[in-house]
Protein 1
Amino acid sequence: MSSIMTEATTSPTSTSGLSHFMDRRNFIRTSVLTGTGVYLATSKSAVAQQTSADRVLKVALVGCGAQGERLLGASKDIPGIQFTAVCDIFPMKRRGIAARVKYTYGSVTEYTEIEEMLAKEKDLDCVLIATPDFLHAPFTRLALQAGKAVYCEKMMANTIENARDMVKAQRETGGLLQIGHQRHSNPRYINVRENILQKNGLLGRVTHMYGQWNRGVSASVPLEVKKGTELDSATLTKYGYDNMEQFLNWRFFSKYGAGPISDLGAHQIDMFNWFFSEKGKPLVTPVSVIATGGTDYYDGKDGRAHFELPDNVMAMYEYQGSEGIRRAYYQVLTTTGSQGYYEKLMGIEGSLVISESPTSNSIYKEPNATKRWDPLAETNPPVLARSALSVHNKLWEKPKPWYRAPKWMDVKTDSRESKALEAWELGAVAPGLPHHYHLVNFFECARTKNIAGLNCPVEDAFRSCVTVLKCYESMKTGAKYVFKPEDFTV
Ligand SMILES: NC(=O)c1ccc[n+]([C@@H]2O[C@H](COP(=O)([O-])OP(=O)(O)OC[C@H]3O[C@@H](n4cnc5c(N)ncnc54)[C@H](O)[C@@H]3O)[C@@H](O)[C@H]2O)c1
């Protein structure tokens, strides 16, 4: 029996769990190590002889809430890793995730506190942090100091000060730290950045960007405390929470989070910076932001919940592009699900819409476009797909009008109407769970100790964190905030 099997073998939860676990063990044994080769270690010494690049990475999850669960699910098919420990102060959440880990990986140790986990789990390689944002900085520092590779969820911190500390912790320890802006590793987004924008310039000069995350009240309402699952007040106080409501709905209170503009905007405003940055170079940052918003609905009145932080924000960024100014509008609303969430780039030769949800996946050609798009549908894999009739879920432009325009509009020379745009589909596909690709990148870099290979190093995430959180400065003063170079330095 291989040492890997010995280490992993503890009683599984059920007979079906056993067979699943056996499959998983075989999977680990056969596919981890070289990616293509078959690993047939038969003794501990055989394992010891392997290079570190061949090891099964031991992984701990800290924070077993909604996102912790997603990270675990998105890691399921990644070879060469084994979750061995989970940590959470909330037994209800921790136990559920621990049972899943045990089922999939054969054994698990549960911890309430990260300090104890790091002290006892000496042979851990990686720590995934999916706790409320205010804990990211201290937990990341602890894990890096313990020599672990860290994958920490976005938003990297709820204050710029804490975000800065994370950059410092990485620099001081020289550790590997990936921030969970998973679009950086998504093949569909990479196709847009590398092929559509940078290599082929299909949109021409991009003058505007737009992003939104609209979520209706049914998705935004605060979580209710389920009777019998409450943490007692001494426990809440010990871990820094004022009460159970805030513990569950931490993202709407400044002590723990930074509101929807940070929670959801973190992903999309980061894309404004990322789309026009070159791989390996620091992320592009805006020159100014003007923002407005407020707690207009969740104000605690008439039985509604109370959010301390704005439940809606609208922000306008300005970027200095090489060809001139580029403006980006962002909105996050928690009172309507209208048109969901997506990012849009608008250039003089074309526009595109993309979302992590692949329902938004279109690119439109302006009549004045100078480049030929057809050859890019023939590449392998295709950059574009010519499928106007099969382009589903278009929100705006239609390849053909779906209703007959009134006569007064039906004048070819009428300057009020643009010609219909030619609709294409973005070519790349990403069948895996959105976080999968980012985790693959992280584990690969952790295995090879390749900090430069990370798709979202902490320095990039820091720039996006500052970009987002400075909205609050503008909202406070009502004036445009002009970024200073030192805002983005550590
Ligand atoms: N990348 C993404 O797409 C994405 C999506 C959702 C959330 N997130 C991020 O993931 C993180 C977690 O969000 P969530 O939605 O899972 O929140 P959640 O409230 O569902 O889960 C947080 C978990 O952390 C635990 N926790 C709190 N204090 C702790 C402590 N001191 N030690 C250990 N565990 C503690 C809680 O008990 C809870 O189980 C946040 O940073 C959030 O921004 C990222």
Protein 2
Amino acid sequence: MADDPNQMPGRILLGKSDKPEYLTLSKGNRHGLITGATGTGKTVTLQLLAEGFAKAGTAVFAADIKGDLSGIAMPGDSKPAFVKRAADLGSAYVAEDFNTVI
Ligand SMILES: Nc1ncnc2c1ncn2[C@@H]1O[C@H](COP(=O)(O)OP(=O)(O)O)[C@@H](O)[C@H]1O
Ligand SMILES: [Mg+2]
């Protein structure tokens, strides 16, 4: 959507706390650490980063030992929970695939 605030160029929407949380692409060359207990969203955050950089035209190399990120090679399902989550973030849910070499 052209007026979708979550699809604005120059940043990647990572999720939402009490407000949307973005990574500004111009800060994407800094070091980062994603940490948390099981089920807190580490893998999904990595997927969002890989997809966001790919959309911005940046090749992504990931040492994906367990295959956690491989799902980005196929479009996802439009499950009701995904559609609702996107709506909560002010976006339309769009299932996309990304060019992937494994
Ligand atoms: N940004 C997000 N927005 C909504 N739900 C999320 C988000 N990140 C993760 N989740 C939910 O949490 C679940 C666990 O996330 P996951 O990334 O697999 O956790 P981890 O890798 O930290 O164990 C996902 O299957 C999804 O249902
Ligand atoms: Mg994980």
